Amino acid sequence: MSNSSRKRHYRSINSVSYLPPRLQPTITFSDSDFSINDPNQDDLMVITATIANWRVHKILIDQGSSIDILYWLTFLKLNVPESAIQAYSEPLLSFAGQKVRSRGFVDLLTTFGIGQSYRTLMVRYILVDADTSYNVLIGRRTLNQLGAIVSTPHMAMKFSASNEMMITVKADPKEARQCYI
Fold first, then answer.
1. pLDDT digits (tens, 9 = 90+) for 129-138
2. Domains in the chain with CATH codes
3. What is the pTM of this model?
4. Which of 25, 111, 131, 146 could bond to 50 as cystine, CB 3.0-4.6 Å?
5. 35 in Cβ contact with 171 (< 8 Å)
6. Could you give the 3-state DSSP secondary structure of residue 38?
7. What is the distance, to the nearest Å, from the Cα of residue 128 to the centroid of all Cα atoms in its chain?
8. Cβ atoms within 10 A of the Cβ of 46, count?
C-alpha cells in the first residue's frame, strides 16, 4: 500500500460526514385505535401477514429480537424450494441463553396489511427448527425497515405506505391467546 493511499484511508475513517435525517411522517395513536375494550390486557402482539404468497397466521411481533425467524415447519408449508436456503453460520441464542442452530436463511417477499392498505418488502428470515406455538417471529430489523411504531396497549402497529398513506395492522387477540393456552 502506498503512503498516499494509506493517508487517504486514514482520512476517510477519521472523517465525520453528515447524513440528513430520514424524514418520516408523524405516527400517532388515539382512543379510536384501541381494538379491544380492556385497557389492562397484556397479550402479545400477534398478527397475520402474507409470506411468499401464503397467508400466515400467528406471527409474533417481537421488538426485543434483532432478527426475523421463520420456523422450519412453517417454511415447509410455504412450498418454497429448499434450494432457496442459503447458509447461515452465526450462532443464535435462545431466551435461556442456549445456542440454537439454524438451518440457514431465506429471503421472502412479505406483505403487511390487507386490501388497499399494505406494504410488501423482502424479509430475510433465519430458519430455525424449534417447537413453538408461533409460525414466524418479526424482529426489529423488519420493523425498522417498515418504519413501524408498535403500541401494545392499542394492540396495533402503524407505518406509512410508499404513497404517504398510513397503514395500521391490528393484532388478533384470539390468535395471541391460542399461542399460550
1. 988 889 999 9
2. 21-178 (2.40.70.10)
3. 0.82
4. 111
5. yes
6. coil
7. 15
8. 25
